[in-house]
Amino acid sequence: MNQVVRALASEEKLLNFYNIVLFDEITERLEMPKKIDLLLIEGSTVTREQEEVVKKFREISDFVVAMGTCAVQGGVQALRIGDDIEKVKAYVYPNPEHIDVNKDVKPVDNVISVDMFIPGCPVNHEAIASLLKKFVSEGLPIAIPESVCSECKRKGIVCVMVAYGIPCLGPITISGCGAICPSFGRGCYGCFGLKDFDLDNSKLKMFAQQLKDLGMDNDRFEQTVKAYSWKTWSKYQNVYHR
Amino acid sequence: MERVLTRVEGEGKVLVKVKEGNVIDVEIQITEAPRFFEYIVRGKHINNVVEIVSRVCGLCGVSYMLTATRAFEKCLKIDVPQEVEELRRIIHLAERVKSHVIHVFLLNLPDFLEMPNSFRLGAVNSAMLRNSMKLLTLAVNIMDILGGRTHNVVNIKIGGVYKPPSESDAVKIVKLIKDAIELFKPLADFVLSLKNIPEEKLAKPLMILHGNGYPHVSDEIAFYNSENAEIFDVQNFENVLDVMQRPGKTALLYKYKGQSYIVGPFARFNTSYDRLHGEARDFVSSYGWKPPLKDVRQQIIARVAEILDSLLTLRDFFQNYKPFEIYSPRIEPAKADKLRCVAAVEAPRGILYHRYDIDEKLKVLHCNIITPTAQNILAMEELSQEKLRMLGRAAEHEAAKLTERIVRAFDPCISCSVHVLSSKY
Ligand code: SF4
Ligand code: SF4
């Protein structure tokens, strides 16, 4: 909610163009219209009920955006995928039988068709503001597919991997954050998600080896990638898996 | 009757049971699906854990990172120089400002104005809406400089921070803070002058982190029932609390010596008013607001005081700030095959407690997190029941709405309370 509110706060007039009909964290429920022009979905689905809600809203919405790493990739909760859900429940709950949760964590496009993806954990509020501004004039922001490294280069940020030997996931991570971590002298941990272009299993494997040489063992690399890139990573993992 | 909780962080419901016109039970239900944080951090390296737990809450990620890093630093005996620790607390206070600004102006204020949301404010008082949005922008700009972004900040690590702000950052921040204070005072004036803030007696015992200054970071906890404080070490927190789970429900409820209690701004203000920044104290008291606040729905006053207190503390800090060298202690493997790592901080909503057991390779074996909202839920329910009983039959139709307002006064973070469940082993 932070980032959407921030996007709305960034441009006074935006609020004149949008009638926010459903946003429980900000407004009491108002009367629901039959049609929604723009639907922003945050989060992944983990229950059947959530899937039904998402499907219902897809039906009445013109344009659907999966917003944030959870919606796009699955999110950190995807770290439990592959483990026995009964064990997961039993670890946390004294009465696991009452907890109704699927064994999978589904990114939104595993449930419905999605018209646009805005990754990020959290999303960059400027991307949301840009969408909200362009959408009112029936346009869309232009997505330029590149890695975080390109943002470093454009901003003249010293490469932490080259200069200081700090492991950095920037080369395999989709751009959009503005290279925040390198600008603080630390490596990227991939919170915007893996690129799903210019990358394949052998490149990933080679890259993992590079990071290992710099001190990030494969286990930590995998944990990090899985936490923020479940969907894309799972496409690669069968070959990549040790 | 049932009502979806809106204008809170996360998904929940209030359920009011009415029999023959009288309220017999009030329950706050957490409907958000669990994300199993205590489970997913298992087997993860402590550096990854700091980033992962930051994702528990959409509003107070810094509190999570600070609690986790402090827990790991204490058990691994990693020294954090005073100036580094100070800076981290300052980043944490910047988050307190942001979180409270959102709560006061976007979530809570509409209750006093009988509006469904604060965007409607534009129609009656456009300056008020514009300026509160501007204030939010200033607050997040301060966080951007200090933390890289507002949410899941990147500038906190075990052992300190990645990059101390530069001298020119400090100048920018001082300017932002001065603008923020100037913008805030008239907005605060509006809130502090509201005539319809209830002031019945509606409260419970209080719990805070006990230290030298206004409650913030400490290893001691104080429980206040009336004037007397019982003080205990944070290491004993899990032992002194009774944990209950309702059959079939996901949220756990906490009691101290058989009683529900309150954490957060209401508890901090009422126990530690004297330790607020002098200017903040003068400001709120000039409107006649002094402790003890009697009614939990007056928490908005405590938040206004805390916003100003934090802004002034930030201003004082950056006016005298000298950048320091980046400090990166080596994190050595643990000397034992099982270490217990415990810490707590005053998150915007109250005491946040983390416990991690880690192995010698610095991977988490077990984790338990006790969040402010989980501690407050029982108080929210009991206070709602008390209030509704007082009103008797008259409350029937308004019951759910009234409860929602009491809940909202607490600023609950439901996405944090949902996974705050015991890890039994
Ligand atoms: S610091 Fe990281 S993201 Fe930036 S150029 Fe180097 S490898 Fe790429
Ligand atoms: S982890 Fe990577 S993608 Fe995320 S903010 Fe840092 S640099 Fe950007």
UniProtKB/TrEMBL annotation, chain A:
NADH:ubiquinone oxidoreductase-like 20kDa subunit domain ranges (all copies): 14-134
Gene Ontology MF term list: oxidoreductase activity
Keyword Repeat: no
InterPro entries: Hydrogenase_assoc-protein (IPR051349), NADH_UbQ_OxRdtase-like_20kDa (IPR006137), NiFe_Hase_small_N_sf (IPR037024)
Pfam (any one): Oxidored_q6
Record keywords: Oxidoreductase
Keyword Secreted attributed: no
Signal peptide: none
Protein name: NADH:ubiquinone oxidoreductase-like 20kDa subunit domain-containing protein
Annotated organism of origin: Ignisphaera cupida
Organism classification: Archaea, Thermoproteota, Thermoprotei, Desulfurococcales, Desulfurococcaceae
UniProtKB/TrEMBL annotation, chain B:
Residues that bind Fe cation: 60, 416
Molecular function GO labels: oxidoreductase activity
Record: residues binding Mg(2+): 38, 369, 419
Keyword hit for Amino-acid biosynthesis: no
The organism's taxonomic lineage, starting at the top: Archaea, Thermoproteota, Thermoprotei, Desulfurococcales, Desulfurococcaceae
Manganese as UniProt keyword: no
Keywords: Iron, Magnesium, Metal-binding, Nickel, Oxidoreductase
Cofactor: Ni(2+); Fe cation
InterPro entries: Ni-dep_hyd_lsu, Ni-dep_hyd_lsu_Ni_BS, NiFe-Hase_large
Name of the featured protein: Nickel-dependent hydrogenase large subunit
PROSITE patterns per the UniProt record, alphabetical: NI_HGENASE_L_2
Binding site for Ni(2+): 57, 60, 413
